[in-house]
Each structure stands twice: as structure tokens, then as C-alpha cells.
Amino acid sequence: MATAPAATPSELIENVTLRIDGRAVTVADGTTILDAAARLGIEIPVLCHDERYDPVGVCRMCVVDIGARVYAAACVRPCEEGMEVTTTGERLERQRATLTELLLSDQPDPASDPKETTTADNELLALARRYGVVKRDGLPEGAIGLPLGSGRGIDDSNPVIAVNHDACILCDRCVRACDDIQNNDVIGRSGKGYTTRIAFDLNDPMGDSSCVTCGECVAACPTGALTNKPLHGVPIRPRSELRSVDTVCPYCGVGCALTYHVDDQRHAIAFAEGREQPGSKRRLCVKGRYGWDYAASPQRLTVPLIRREDSYPKGPLSGDVKGEGRGMRKPGGLVDYDEVLPHFREASWDEALDLIAHRLVAIRDQHGPGAIAGFGSAKCSNEEAYLFQKLIRAGFGTNNVDHCTRLCHASSVAALFEGVGSAAVSTTYGDIVNADVAILAGTNTTANHPVASSFFKQARRRGTKLIVVDPRRERVADHADIYCQIKPGTDVAFYNGLMHEIIALGLVDREFIARRTSNYEALAELVGQYPPERAGQICGVSPAVLREVARLWGEAGAAIVFWGMGISQHTTGTDNARCLIALCAITGNVGRPGTGLHPLRGQNNVQGASDAGLIPMFYPDYQPVDKPVNQQRFEAAWGRELDPKRGLTVTEIVASALTGGVRGMYMMGENPFLSDPNINKVRKALSALEFLAVQDIFLTETAEFADVVLPASSYLEKDGTYTNTDRRVQLGRKVLDPPGQARVDWEVIQELANRIGLPMRYDSPSEIFDELVSLMPNYTNLSYDKLGPTGKLYPNPDPAHSDGIVVLFQERFNTDDGKAHLVPAEWMPPRELPSEEFPFVLNTGRLLEHWHTGSMTRRSYALDTIVPNAIVYLHPGDAERLGIADGSFARVTSRRGSIELRVSISHRETPGSCFVPFHFREAAANLLTIDEIDPFGKIPEFKFCAVRVEPVQAPVVPARTPAAVS
Amino acid sequence: MARTNGRIPGVEARAGRSPGPSLIRSLNAIQREHGWLPREQLVRLARDTRRPLYELEGLISFYPHFRTTPPAKIEITVCRDLSCWLHGGDERIARIHELYGDDAEIEVREVSCIGRCDRPPAATVNERPAVVSELNDVVREARAPGGAHAGGLRTGQAASCAAAPARRHWPNDPYPEGADASHYGVVRAMLAGSLRPADTIELVEHSGLRGMGAALGTLKESGLRGMGGAGFPTAAKWELVATQEGEPKYVICNADESEPGTFKDRQILAEQPHLVIEGMLIAMLTIGAEQGWLFVRHEYGPEEEAFRAELAGARAQAILGENVLGSGRRLEIDVFTSPGGYILGEESALLECMEGHRGEPRNKPPFPATYGLWGKPTLMNSVETLAAIPVILERGGQWWRDQGVRGGVGLKFLAVSGQIANPGVYCVPMGTTARELIELAGGVADGAELQAFQPGGASSNFLGPEQLDVPLDFKPLADAGSMLGSGALVVIAEGTNLLAAATNVLRFFRDESCGKCVPCRTGSHKAHQILTELLERGGGAGDVDQRIDQLEETMRLTSICGLGQVALGPVMSVLRMQRTGTAAAP
Questions:
Q1: Which of A39, A148, A444, B458 is the most buried (most CB within 10 A)?
Q2: Do the chains contact at B518 and A188, CB–CB below 8 Å?
Q3: Nearest residue on chain B to A104, judged by CA atoms?
Q4: Which residue of A has its CA nearest to B513?
Q5: Which CATH architecture is the domain B497-586 placed in?
Q6: What percent of chain A has pLDDT over 70?
């Protein structure tokens, strides 16, 4: 079932026989001496080589005698028939010792070596010990006494990575890590001869360069040249002295496997490292490698809080959230605890939970189950999502349960369900290696799915044609074979034009269409109205380019599409996704390796939370709530009568609160005040709620409206499973204890359930997992025991022996008739078009360094230091016309609100359009956004509204001190 | 060729080498426009070409031609390597610094050998060769309004300012003096299919040969060996490339001689460009290439102009172009001007440079014959080798063999410099002794006694007076513990500190080390540091300790390319002479 990788060495014919240290070995042509020796168990010392990188042969430590005039570098020299290789001996070892000393003579003293004093795994010093070549103090034997040198210097400009050029041996491992693994292309060699050193960009300080601080170079470096800096004074020590916890990154849907090395004396993480896993392959991004310290913030909630009597009537508590004093905001962007906390008093867990149970039950009893709603979180585990929706559905009797998937891929889910009967990806992100062509549609992957993007960029270097379709020329567009800068909101026209041309060229897969799709004629008729000339005119891409893309896609043996919020967050989001599904289906590009549909999921567990039923229209595993057979199944399982109607979505719940529908809410880990569109409306809705319980790890903007605030546990403080964008279900393991009285979320839900008459008696997350698996056919066969260290893909017929099914829909789709349903879509313009008064298009989204409403990342030292401020990105031409300089301030105003923030001039923007990330409460993008929604997915149009941009004086604010975490 | 996971065995990873077309041309264009490389231009170039900034940094910091600061109005460069050093180089350089050091309009740079060792100490003013004794006049001229500015690639105008060298008739030229119309006779004959049958050899039926009268037979008979240093049999190299399967194939003429004392190829380029071009064309026809390149040092401006003029003439006669002499065959030769650095003379470094990367030698195998320019089979020969081809084909292999003496084969161009009366390029029978050549060049300067000589350029071991009768030929020199190398005889008279001379040579190698591999990058530096400190203390060969011996062994055995392998060779030869009192031992 797994995809077919490129030829593995085992498939090559082994026909070259040579002798190494007198022992014969037969290997495939092209095998290096190093690999052949390893086959015989002969270890050859090496510094510049690592199995993950292609060899460069520069350190010369691995030289061997092949009977030639000079020695050969075993890491790069291919074996030859009849070769006689000697890998050791006095003369060879003497050269290795001299090479070691040559390098060592320029190194920092071991006593101050940045590697030896941290993880203590300096590979050069290990060799030095082996050869008895010890610098300065210590044993001089073996050393010939070369003059010592140093002076290439230190670069301390990156907040979390220390660069010590003296400790650099120019092995190029970091260069290859940056280029060939992460494909960030930042590090190279500068200078020549003895003065050569590694350099970032144009020999700039690392912190000023285009480096994205993924830390792959640190992981690659064998010496002390690139090391992690300790965070918050927690020293980095040898791994053996720390407790290592194998778990998964808490941030995005890529779900990279990692290991935290924990200092138990300090109850803190010392550092993180990527871990082997079939998807992420030890890679991490800046958030994963350096962004975990938010959990240690002193601002963590540690005691249940109850709103004081005198803080009623309810409403926002801080000036910021009230919307006062715009432009004079306190920098830093976090809720001001000093301003907000006095409105709450500490309470015991029992008091707080009793109060929540009592109030919510009272509201339900008085106004009916429909007056209750719950927002769960895509940051919580499958078990917590499952329990949360069970609480709302079985405990309160309503399907009004949803989470932030509504704000990201709800439209994709709607289209996928309708089209192929399943909302999960049809193949993994890594399957791109098997694709001839890949389209990245509306996805800024380098920022939002950095590790997945590294595989996309890598595939392109290995020959996959990469086509990027996005109004913003993001970093990944620099790697594209073809970049299509479509006008915002014209995706349907673009893809219809593409399909028109593919059909016109006869590049459709007739057999696939006939056997595996329905409604092709209607689709063909509609896209017939979008010849490239017309489509190109709408979307601003030349017909020639459209034709070129169509031909590439149509002629590809395997083609795949990845998409993100640029597709989904539109009022036509479902139509956009329908087009992508149709594009794949009519060309037969689903169900085979290197083909398929992959909506890149945002949150670490947005896939799992949706799978587990944290959405108003489905029970777990997408079993529609309005189908009696499903209702009966779950009523039987849960022992409660269930609501036969679909519940309200996130956006509908907010609207309903304004009109007195929903009156009582329970929010676990959601912060709609910043994440939902048109904040002014959200403010009114939250204020209007009769009762709001918020369960979170920090005092969020939303918590200001709460009656009760419960201190939850962070990801790092509990066990649970998380399902990534690939459908990989992985175990997240507890790393640290929750602070104070904070409790793990599943226990809190259970406590509450027991108080409202829905008994829950789970002893562990694995028990919950077993229950959900029993109700979720797609998760069949999975259990904690079987997930193993790297998790398993679902569906998985044999988790004991298989990683799971990579490619879905090989024979049939999940629809009732097994066919893909093609749904034609007419292009419709966005709801709020630019006008004379509001001439710009506002686009919103994320930055690499920040996460959603910033409550985590703005409390991370690394992430907050790298990007401390809210920014609006403007095209150079627009900025010039408006008289706005880079780094100055601008006011961005829509019909709904106005924010002031710093300007960054960026050639990556579409002219006439500006981009504001939504992480920053002091300049909240969602004050501006429009709350129009897609009719099917109910997702708001975050990617398009009309705004005005004007220069303003820089606000008088105190200088920003990075990192709220002391 | 077998591939493992898409890679050719032995081809090393692309660390720091972005795929895609070379950016060196674009960098040249920026520098031509601005005189230097302003940062914003580099950022724009990176963005427009979607190439990483580090790649640009790698190039501009590696190649001495590129500059990241605005140039002074006048840039003086002075050579500090052996041949010039022997002519009071240190003092002259000090004097030039003294004269112009405080002049804001003038920048003085000490540089590695610029290949004008026959007019020591060699200097340039705004990239134009200049004689140090006339420096004042040249500087005044440059300072005047309208004077040539520094920066940018030297222009044709600047180059033509240098006196065009007089063309002499050399014994390797088969065409009568003054009868330019007869040039390219061999190529004409090949294309007409009328090359004598004896010249063809029965090769495997190979498309690369395309039925052309193959020159390989004659070439084999002639016993011609590569004159660039290694002495690889030329016919064997051609045959190897001719029989490769890869297409297209390329021919590169390596005109990047940059070793101190070496300037014979410069002379050949200046005076016999027609022979070089014809040699390249014959090679292209033989191996089945359509495209040839002259890779020439940027210091050879006037010579490059002469070559380009000859190319234009050949093109006008349809010797070059889309349809050469009506044969329907395309033959093109272009010039690639090196952005600088001795290491580019190493063939794989040269290829890296042409592909737009840092000129760092590759791990070998594969060799250029199988995996050369852009991974295609590539024939690379030196200027002198190619210039010998026409006469061999015109007069036959035996004729060539007959030109040598004492068992030597053919003719040999040798550059003579150092403490010699008449430095210059001499074409002599292979097998001529050093004594004969020194006599031909007027003897040791000022009638002094000879102390030592390097027979084959900076990387060749020093020999003493007792070895003056060793024939200047591949094997006899190897037997004597040295080599024919780059064909540069450097003469050192009595009274010179020989260890200091060898240390000067070592400094050259240290300065020109690309820095790719550890032994060369670090070893050359440490060795130079040890010897310099020793010399400063007034130490001599007897004071040199085992560290140098060990560094020499490590560099020789473990360096990637010849530079590191031989960098300490000359020093060791002096140590052997002076530690034991006898000259270099085999």
C-alpha cells in the first residue's frame, strides 16, 4: 500500500568485488568505500560526512589507502572491481592524527568549547581523544605541536543559535542541512583558503540574514560552531544527564516527531531535537525546535478563577479588548494581567466546576439544549476532543459543538465530503516525491507548514515540477517552476480555465472519468465557458501561462495538489476546493502514488479533533448527526438521547449569541476574540452571553468575558494522541507536571460531565482512545500499544507491521456510489470589493514565527524576539504611491474597524493588496475582516475585504522588550 | 555510467552550489556598470534570478576579480611571487606602498603571480600591465582626466593600450611566415576529407567521429604529451573523450597558467592564436564536439584580445560558425575570462568556475573526460599542447618525435625567469638541458653563480647546480626528483636565501589554496607560519623540525588536488639540499 520509492540500493545488482583490509566484499556499482567498509563492520573515522547528506569529501579524515599515489576519501570514492583497500595502519592513522591536530589547533579550548560545555558530543574532540591529540592542557602525546590560531570570531546575533566561527571545521554539513534538507538556502562558504568561513547570505550576521532559525544546521554541526543557546537559563547538558521524552511538536498539522531533553532538577526543558519518523524525518522548524517555552511562562493560570460580583455586568475588562485608546496600545500584545486579574477571585476546583455545571444546566433547563454551545480546541488531543463533544452532545443534548476548523478548512471538508466522501488527505505530504507535477494552491507552506515545505522544495530539486498559485509571492514561490500570481479571490476562474484547457487538449483521463466519477458532463459544460483568455482576464494570469500549466498537469504521469487557507477562507471556499477535486479527478490524479488531494491542516490536531467529532454536523468519524442510524448508534454507545439536528458552527454560534439563541458556553482552548472575523461583533456576542466558562492555559482576550476561568494543562503536561495532516495518529507524551492546580483537560471535562449527570470514569487517555476507536471505523485496529514511537497512519489494517495506508481511494471513493462527484462551480467575486474609499484588498494569515492568536508564541522567547511587532506588508509600488516608508507606521481601516501598525515593504505582495498577520492583538487583523461566510463550509472570508491604508505618525509607546517570559 | 539514487558515483554533493546557470556573467555585468558590486544590486540579482544570496557571497568572496567596495581611481597591483621576489620584490613593494600609500586616489594591492615574470617585478595599473620603473608615468596618465578607471572587467580599450606583442615565427608553426592565408590547413583538409589515410586510425565505429579523418593515429605516433603539467598522453586523452557516450562534448583550452614563473602560454596566445584555435578545432572534430572554450586568466587582457581578434578572423573565413567551410558542421569557440585564482588551472576547479560555482576542485574520479563541463565528456588541453597539434598533423608524428634531443619527444616551450640575463619564452627541443637553456637565455644575471633552479614552475622541486645537465624532459626530471611541470625555469643565483625562496613559493600556495579540504587549507597556513617565524628568527634549514615533514606528508597524501599535494614539495627539496648538503633526491 505504501508508495513506491525510488530504487533502493538493495534493488541494484551487486557486481563489484573488492577487498577491504584483506576481506572480500561485493557491492553494487557506485557504492562508496565507506559504505562497503561499514558492511564489513569496519568503521572509518569521518567528520564531514553523515548518512543524511550526500558526501563532499572535504575533511579527509576518512582517507584510505587504495594503493595509489595518494589516499582516497572513503566517503566519496566509489568501489572499483579488484580494489585493495587498507583502512588503517600506522601511516594512515598518522595522517588522521595530523588532520585532527590541524583542525584542533584553531579550535576554542575544550574547557570553553560551546559543544563540549553543552551536549558534550563534539565529534572532533572525540577524534582528538582517540588520537591522543589534546589541545593546550592535557596530554601532548600524538600532537606535533602546531601553532595555535583563532580569530574567525563569534556571531551572537541569533537569539537562540550561537555561532562560533573558530569552532567551525568547514565540513559543510550545515550547508547541506540548510540547502539539501530544509532547502532554506542561507548558508554557504565565504572567502578562500585559510580565511574561509561559513557565511549567512552576504556574510551577514545570522540574526540579520534570511535564516528562518529552523536549527537544522545546529543538528548537523559536529563541533561547537553552531550550538543552541540555553533558554531561560536552563543549561544545555549531555543527553545522558537529561530525561528524554519522545513526543510530537505542539504547533502545526505537520506533526513532526521530536524529543525533549528535560532537566528534572529545574523542571524545565533544556532543548529539543527532531526525531526519526516517516513523515518529518527528524526535521523541525523554529516553532518546534525553539518555541516550547511558552508552557513555562509565569503567566500560566494555576488556580480556578471566578468573576467578582462587582465586575458585572459582563464585558471586556482591559482597555485593549474594550477597543479603547487605539494607536496608544501597550506594546507586547498580551492581555494585561494587572488590569484583568483583579476582576476575578481565586476559587477551588469544586466551587468552579459546580458553578459551571449549575449555570449551564440551568440555562439548558430554561432555554433548551440549543442555548448551550461548546468550542473545543484543535490543540487538544483526540481523547479530549472526543470527550468534549460527548459532553456537549450527550451531556447537554445539543450538537452545538465546534472548533477552529471552522475557521480554516471547513470549506475543504465540505467539498471533500461531497466529492470523495472523506475529508482527510488522500495521500501524505511526503508522497510528493512520486509526483511529476505538484500544485501548491493558496498555501504559504514555508510559514505555515515549514517542514512539509522542505519536502516540497526538495522534491522540486529532484525533478518534480512545482507550480505555485497564490496572490502572494511567498518564499516557496522562489522555488516554483511556474508561479501564478492570481488576483485575490479568483481561484475558481483560474482552475476552471485550467480544466477548460486540459479538456480542450484532450489530456483528461477518459477511462477514470467514466469508471470513477459522476457529473463530468456538467463540469465540462461549465468549464467550457472559461477559455484561458477569459479565465486569464479574471485572474490576471496570462493565457499562455494557463496553457502551460494545463499542459504540464495534463501530461503528468502523477500530479498532486496541496492547498491551504488561500483556497478555503473565502465565501467561495467550497467552490475553490471543488475545482481542485475536479482537476485531480478528470485527469485521474487520485488514488495512485504521487497523486491526490492534500488540504494542509493547520493545527497540530485539527484533523484529529474533526475526526473525533468536534464538529456540529458529524459524530466521530464523520457520521452525520442527522442520519437516524448514526444517532441510534451513538445513543446506544453513550446511553443518552441525542439531538437529531445539526448543531451550529463557530460563526453561527457567535451570531446566535447576539440574538439570544446561544446563552451559555463552555470554551476549551479557543480564543475567538482574536481568531474570529469582525471582532467588534464578537465582542458584543461574548458580552451578551449569560454564562461563559473558559478553560485555557493563559488569560486570553476571550477569558475577559468569562464567568469562570479554569487553569488547563498545556500540551506538554499530558498524554494523548494527535492526528496530523497525513492522518498519522501519534502519541504526545507528558513532559512536565502542570503548574499549580492546573489540571489536564480530559479530567476537567470528566469532572464537569459527572456534575451534569453524564457519568465518566476514565482512568487514562488510552481508555478514552479505546472507546473512540470502537466508534470510529477509520481508526480500527489502533491502540496506544500499537502506535509505536512514530505513530501510525489511518486507516491501518495491520498496525503491528505496517505504517498504514498512504494512498487512499485506490479502488473507490468513500461516497455511497464509490465515485467522485464532480461539482461545477461558477466564479463569483468576493463579497466586499475595493472601492474608492477602501481601495485595497486585505489578506490575512500567519507568520512562520507565530501561532494563531499569539497566546503561545508571544510567550516564547525565540519567537517573540524574532518577530515582536505587528506588521502590515505592502507592495513597494503601493507604498511609494502612499508615501509610506519601510518601517514607518500606517493605519489600515475597513468598514468595521481600524488598526495602526508598522509597515514592511515587501516585493512578495500583489499590487493593490496588503497582508496583515492575525496574531497581534494590539493591531488585530480581525477588527478589519468581514464576517461573511461560505454557504457550505460556513467559513469566513478571512482572505478578502476592502481596506484603506494611510501613513500615520509612529505611536508614542515604550520600547518593546522582547519576551514576556522572564 | 552507473547511477546510484540518481547520482553518478564519485560525484560529490552540491554543498553550497546552487543548480542553474552561472551568475558570474551577471556579476561581471554589475561590476562593469558600477565598478564594484553594491549590496542592493546583489540583492536584486538574487531576487531576479531566484538564487540564494549565499551563492553570490560564495562567488564574490572567492574570486579576486570581484570587489564589494568602490574602487579607487587608480588601482596598482604588484606581484610578490618568486620570480618577482628575486628581483628585490619586497623592497619594491615597500617603496610603492611608501609612494602611494597615502594617496586617496590610489589603491595598492599585492597579488599573486600575474604571468609577466619576464618584466619583474610585474605590476599593473588599472589592470593594464605596467613596468615598475615606469609606474610614475603610467599613474600620471591614469590620473589625468579621461584616464582609464579601475574597476570592471578591463575593457578592450584598456587592453589595446598595452603594446601588442610582436609576432615571431616559432618552430611549431607549420605555416610559412607571413602566409596567413595558409592557416587552418589541417582543419580544411579534415573537413575536405583529405587528411592523409595514414593519419586515420581504426577506432570503434563511433558517432562522435562522424567519419572525419581522425587525427588520432598521427597523434599517437607523435607521442605528444600534455604540456600543462601532468604530461598525460594526448592521444589517449582524446580517444577517451571520443569514445564516451555522453552528448554533447566540449573542448576546453586551459589558458589559466598562473604558477609563478609560468608565462609560456601567454606568449603562445599572443603570437600563435591561430595554432591554438586550429588545435582546438582539430580536437573538436576528432572527439565530436561543436563547442570549444578558451578559459583564460583575466590578467591576460592583451593576449585575450589577440585571441579574440584571431577568432573574428577565423569566423570571417567560415573556419568557425554554423556551417564551417560549407561542411554543414557547426564549430564554435568562445572565450571564458577567469574571475581569478591560480586554483582554476586545476581542471575540475576550472569546470566548477565555468559552471558558476566557487572554483574548488572536485573529488576525482570521475575525471573531466567522462564527467566534465555540466557533467558532459570534456576534453581539456593546455594552450601549448593544442598549439602543437597543427604542426604534428601537417608534418607527421615522426617529424614531431624527431624534434627532441636526448630521447626527448618534440618541441618544448619554456619560460625562463628569475635571476637570468634575458628572461622570456624559449622554444627548444625536448631534452634540452637546463644548462643549455640558461645559456640561451644569456646566463645567470650579472654573471653570478647559479645556486639552484626550479625546472618546472613553482610546484617543482628545486635542483642544484650539479643537476644542470639533466635534460628538461618528463622522465629525466622525475628521476632527478623534480618535474617538468608548468614549463617554467626559475633561476636562483648564489646569495639568495633558498629557504626563504621556498617559503615564498609556499606562501603562494597558501594564498591560492581554495580552502575546500582541511590539509591544504590549514596545513599550508600552519607550515607557512612555522617557516616564517623561523626565518624571522634567522633560522635555517637545519632548524626546521619534523612538523614540516609531517605536514608535507599529510598534505601530499590527503589533499584533494595537486595544489595541496605539492605545496610543501619545494620546501622539502630545499631542506633535503641543505640538511644533507646534496640536491633533491628522487
A1: B458
A2: no
A3: B522
A4: A193
A5: Up-down Bundle (1.20)
A6: 96
Q: Please state which architecture CATH assigns to domain B74-152.
A: 3-Layer(aba) Sandwich (3.40)
Please compute the mean of the pLDDT values over residues A548-574 and round it to a whole number.
97
Q: Which of A176, A199, A478 sits opposite B54 (nearest CB)?
A: A199
For chain B, the structural domain boundaries read: 17-62, 74-152, 183-247+262-291+303-330+342-396, 497-586
* CB-nearest partner of B7 from A54, A73, A186: A54
Contact B511 A193 (CB under 8 A): yes
Residue whose C-alpha is closest to residue A669's, from A876, A891, A309, A375 = A375
Model pLDDT for residues B288-313, shown as the tens digit of each residue: 999 999 999 999 999 999 999 999 99
- pLDDT of A139 > 70? The answer is no
Question: Is the CB of B557 inside 8 Å of chain A's CB atoms?
Answer: yes
What is the structure's pLDDT at A5?
Answer: 40
In chain A, residues with a C-beta closer than 8 Å to the C-beta of B544 are: none
The whole-angstrom separation of Cα B507 and Cα A243 is 52
**Residues β-bridged to residue A24:** A19
Q: What is the number of other CB atoms lying within 10 angstroms of the CB of residue B21?
A: 11
CATH match of B183-247+262-291+303-330+342-396 with 3.40.50.11540: yes
Strand partners, A916: A844
- Pick from A70, A105, A189: which is nearest to B58 by CB? A189
What CA–CA distance (Å, rounded) separates A100 from A45?
A: 11
What is the per-residue pLDDT across A637-677, written as a single tens digit (0 to 9) for each?
999 999 999 999 999 999 999 999 999 999 999 999 888 99
Interface of B with A in 25-44 (CB under 8 A): 39, 42-43
Residue A44's Cβ-side half-sphere holds a number of Cα atoms within 13 Å equal to: 32
- A194 and B513 in contact by Cβ < 8 A? yes
Q: Tell me, what's the ipTM?
A: 0.94
Kindly determine whether residue A193 and residue B510, on different chains, have CB atoms separated by under 8 Å.
Answer: yes
So what's the pLDDT on residue A295?
94
Which band of pLDDT confidence, cut at 50, 70 and 90, is reported for residue B152?
Answer: very low
| Shortest Cα distance, chain B CAs vs residue A43, angstroms | 18
B364/chain A closest Cα distance in angstroms: 8
Best A56, A83, A107 member to test B by mutation, with max B CBs in 10 Å, is: A56
CA pair distance A309, A843, nearest whole angstrom: 41
CA distance A812 to B135: 85
Reading the block at residue B342, the C-alpha cell is 591560480
For the cut 60, the answer to whether the pLDDT of residue A507 exceeds it is yes
Mutant choice from B30, B40, B54 vs A, greatest count of A C-beta within 10 A: B54
A728-768 pLDDT per residue, tens: 999 999 999 999 999 999 999 999 999 999 999 999 999 99
**Looking at the partner chain, which of A9, A60, A186 has a beta carbon nearest the beta carbon of B558?**
A60
d(CA A586, CA A509): 6
Average pLDDT over residues B524-534: 97
Structure confidence at residue A420 as a pLDDT band (50, 70, 90): very high
With CA atoms as reference, report the closest residue to A638 among A400, A391, A371: A391
Q: How far apart are CA A459 and CA A447, in angstroms?
A: 18
- List, in order, residues 6 or more apart from A380 with CB less than 8 Å away: A388, A605, A609, A668, A669, A720, A745
pTM of the model: 0.93
Chain A residue at shortest CA distance from B47 = A478
Distance, CA of B30 to CA of B41 (rounded, Å): 7
Q: Which site among A192, A458, A478 would you substitute to test the B interface, given the most B Cβ atoms closer than 10 Å to its Cβ?
A: A192
Residue A932 scores a pLDDT above 60: yes
Lowest mean pLDDT among A330-339, A586-595, B72-81: A330-339
